[in-house]
């Protein structure tokens, strides 16, 4: 489907935030990879970045979230915010137009809703920088944690995940997330602490290639994405980040009836992913070994300094 995009300039790397950013404790980073992983790329410098923010009817929070992302953006990085408005019917489009007069934002509007995974794919396909990061539009992630993820990438990892060690979600949603994590381990021996976290960053080309093959789990896009990521033997590292209550508004999957429906749909989609891999294995295409328990990682790296997946 067509989407209208508006290009605006990148942030100058010399810009300094007007407010002091509170220091973040140096966390422990767990790097996870399979025994047959690809050779780790050389240490790199993340000098340009697109921050993708998928949004659907987030008028109550989008202004606050984007202003915080802009004010607390990583220093020394030419960062651009790309918002994918997934056919919002509230004041989200109006607010985005107003914000474009305050700071550089690219906005792509889907005329028809494509869902969470569809919005992410649109954003990834329209990313022009070498590096890309993601966050949600509901304010549950702290943009001050983004530099920690970039440091993980600069240490040589291909993907950095923000691990929500203390989730600020309702019990039911957290329990379902834990359940799906267990299914990932049961079906694929995949054991990331937080496979559905929306706060993540990585190399655009690699993420684009994996996202293009992620086609079954729209509402829980990152679950399938991580299965396919590990099947390609790409490495990733998890770093603890803060998780906050929604800034305002209600989750799109807050009602228990909606949670049950979405969970059932995503479980069926997960079975389709498993069937695809099982069929490939039956036909003689071996499934690469997936990661075991993250506690058994072969090394650790020091680092300084829904409308969403359940």
What does it look like?
- The protein has one domain (28-302): Spore Coat Polysaccharide Biosynthesis Protein SpsA, Chain A (Alpha-Beta Complex).
- The protein is globular and about 55 Å long.
- It has 310 residues and is of the alpha/beta class.
- It is built from eight helices and ten strands.
- Strand 4 (78-86), helix 2 and strand 5 form a beta-alpha-beta unit.
- Helix 5 packs parallel to helix 8.
- A ten-stranded mixed β-sheet has the order 1-5-4-3-6-8-7-9-2-10, sandwiched between helices.
- It has helices at 62-71, 92-99, 115-125, 146-154, 171-188, 204-212, 221-231, 256-282; strands spanning 4-5, 28-32, 48-55, 78-86, 105-110, 131-134, 159-164, 200-203, 236-241, 299-302.
The CATH homologous superfamily name equals Spore Coat Polysaccharide Biosynthesis Protein SpsA, Chain A
Strand content: 15-25%
Uncertain ranges: 1-26, 33-37, 286-308
Specify the structural class.
Answer: alpha/beta
Shape field: globular
Helix content: 25-40%
Task: Summarize the main sheet.
Answer: 10 strands, mixed
Side by side, the strands of the main sheet go: 1-5-4-3-6-8-7-9-2-10
Give the CATH level 1 class.
Alpha Beta
Continuous helix count: 8
N- and C-termini, Cα separation: 26 Å
Average pLDDT: 79
The count of strands amounts to 10
Q: Name the helix and strand elements from N-terminus to C-terminus, one letter apiece.
A: EEEHEHEHEHEHEHHEHE
């Amino acid at each position: 489907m067509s989407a209208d995009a508006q290009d605006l300039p990148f942030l100058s790397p010399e810009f300094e935030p007007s407010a002091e950013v509170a220091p973040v404790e140096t966390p422990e980073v767990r790097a996870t990879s399979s025994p047959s992983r690809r050779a780790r790329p050389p240490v790199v410098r993340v000098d340009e970045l697109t921050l993708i923010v998928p949004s659907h009817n987030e008028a109550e929070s989008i202004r606050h979230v984007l202003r915080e992302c802009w004010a607390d953006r990583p220093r020394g990085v030419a960062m651009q915010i790309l918002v994918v408005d997934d056919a919002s019917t509230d004041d989200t489009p109006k607010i985005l137009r107003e914000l474009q007069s305050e700071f550089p934002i690219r906005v792509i509007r889907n005329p028809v809703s494509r869902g969470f995974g569809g919005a992410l794919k649109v954003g990834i396909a329209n990313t022009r920088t070498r590096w890309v990061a993601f966050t949600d539009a509901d304010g549950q992630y702290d943009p001050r944690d983004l530099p920690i993820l970039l440091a993980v990438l600069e240490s040589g990892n291909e993907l950095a995940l923000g691990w929500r060690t203390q989730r600020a979600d309702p019990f039911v949603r957290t329990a379902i997330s834990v359940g799906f994590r267990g299914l990932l381990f049961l079906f694929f021996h995949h054991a990331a602490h937080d496979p559905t976290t929306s706060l993540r960053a990585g190399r655009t080309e690699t993420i684009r290639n994996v996202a293009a093959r992620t086609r079954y789990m729209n509402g829980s896009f990152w679950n399938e994405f991580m299965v396919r990521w590990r099947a390609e033997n790409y490495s990733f590292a998890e770093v603890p980040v803060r998780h906050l209550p929604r800034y305002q508004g209600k989750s799109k999957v807050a009602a228990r009836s909606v949670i049950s429906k979405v969970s059932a749909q995503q479980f069926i989609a997960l079975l389709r992913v498993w069937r695809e891999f099982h069929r490939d294995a039956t036909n003689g295409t071996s499934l690469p070994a997936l990661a075991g328990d993250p506690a058994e990682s072969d090394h650790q790296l020091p680092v300084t300094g829904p409308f969403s997946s359940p």
